[in-house]
Design a protein that fits this description.
With 420 residues, the chain is mainly beta. The protein is 14% helix and 44% strand. Helix 1 runs antiparallel to helix 2. The two termini are 41 Å apart. The relative contact order is 0.10.
Length: 420
């Protein structure tokens, strides 16, 4: 062995030691750490055969590791659901230890333990159609509905503790108050225009809020729980209710276009209202007047969400097949992601820390879906998570370090690799 070859082997050995030390500074899934260790062990094995082969292996590894540390997302696990043909909605428990997913046809509900990737509970043929589901803020209760009923499921004891019969059909999403003591029910298509408040502990109705002249499509509590905003897709008003006094506090009357979705700013001083014609209005909760408006969408907006500090707002519309990120103060568009066809479907979810925006587009050509991750500060794409099929729903864990996606009969998990 020549001196130059021995020197090169020493250099590669030192590089491998430095790489191992660098990896130890990162938190990552155990399976991914083992994969990295196996790759490094292979490079060490190649050293005994060919320095050039080992050198190439190390260079390839360094290029891959550089990409991982820049994007920060790696596959964590694939959770399979025997007996479930398609998954629908997905949600994490507030502490991030459990993941719930409903089948698309709505009959089944599966919960997984995130730490072990094992099924925590499987409710087969439980209800006729899973319309909506959500955890209570303390994670003790999982609430879900099939249009005409609301079910409260005790998470720790794994049993359905109550079934509420509603005065109508096709409920909108169940919304818990921030302290979890109550939740709302209302109807999107029924003739019933009332909004009901229910006590979480015993599922008794607290009151019925009357005022809307058409079914209330959506509702949202203010961050401190003192106010409840409700809107109807058939009237051009949003009603603000005093939760403690159970009375209407104000009525926000905008233009002639009905409100499609609403969201309070994190500090509770503003309410964002997205209308059927693609305008997003910011209402001042102190004065009851419009502060400003965002215009860019060309049609009905299906979803809006503030980032963690209220400086940015994300929105999506299937009418113009676009996802947009806005600067709330200036009204400037920071990001516009459009589909490739007018028949595509788009949606998004925001990381709880507000740094990452996950966008997905369902192609009309039935092509494999991609979840795009965008940096909300720079407006730059940071990663693209590839799927072998379509995507039904996407959710970030409460701590923001895990991303879950329902696709067919599987739930795929990605984990963020981050420095300790």
């Amino acid at each position: 062995m020549t001196d130059s070859n021995e020197q090169r082997i020493d250099e590669i050995t030192t590089t491998l030691a430095n790489i191992r030390a660098e990896i130890e500074n990162y938190v990552m899934p155990q399976a991914f750490r083992k994969q990295l260790e196996d790759d490094l062990a292979e490079a060490e094995r190649l050293l005994t055969e060919s320095a050039s082969a080992a050198d190439k292996k190390v260079n390839d590894f360094q290029a891959y590791w550089s990409k991982v540390t820049q994007t920060g997302w790696v596959e964590h696990a694939v959770l399979q659901s025997p007996g479930v043909s398609d998954n629908g909605k997905i949600t994490f428990s507030p502490d991030g230890t459990l993941l719930a997913a409903s089948s698309y046809e709505g009959k089944n509900l599966v919960l997984w333990d995130i730490s072990s990737s094992e099924q925590f509970a499987f409710l087969k043929d439980h209800i006729k159609f899973m319309a909506h589901m959500t955890f209570s803020p303390d994670g003790n209760t999982l609430a879900y509905s099939d249009g005409g009923y609301v079910y409260l499921w005790d998470v720790a004891k794994k049993y359905q503790r109550v079934k509420i019969t509603l005065d109508g059909y096709n409920t909108t999403p169940i919304v818990f108050s921030p302290d979890g003591t109550m939740f709302t029910t209302n109807f999107a298509l029924a003739q019933n225009s009332a909004v009901s408040l229910w006590r979480t502990t015993d599922a008794q109705k607290i009151t019925t809020l009357q005022g809307h002249t058409a079914p209330a499509r959506c509702s949202a509590f203010s961050p401190d729980g003192s106010l409840l905003a409700t809107s109807s897709s058939r009237e051009n008003t949003v009603r603000i209710w005093d939760v403690a006094n159970k009375r209407q506090q104000m009525v926000l009357r905008g233009d002639a276009q009905p409100a499609q979705c609403i969201a309070f700013s994190p500090d509770g001083t503003m309410l964002a209202v997205a209308t059927e014609d693609g305008v997003i209005q910011f209402w001042d909760m102190g004065t009851g007047r419009i502060r400003s408006a965002l215009r860019g969408h060309n049609g009905c907006i299906e979803k809006i969400a503030f980032n963690h500090d209220g400086t940015k707002l994300a929105s999506s519309s299937n009418a113009d097949v676009s996802i947009r990120l806005w600067d709330v103060v200036s009204g400037r568009e920071l990001l516009v992601r459009k589909g490739n066809s007018t028949n595509d479907l788009v949606s998004f979810t925001l990381n709880p820390n507000g740094v990452t925006l996950a966008c997905w587009i369902l192609s009309s050509l039935s092509a494999p879906a991609t979840i795009e991750l965008w940096n909300t500060a720079t407006g730059q794409q940071i990663d693209a998570l590839q799927l072998s099929g379509s995507v039904d729903d996407v959710a970030f864990s409460p701590d923001g370090f895990m991303l879950a996606c329902t696709s067919g009969s599987n739930v795929k998990l990605w984990r963020q690799v981050m420095r300790k």
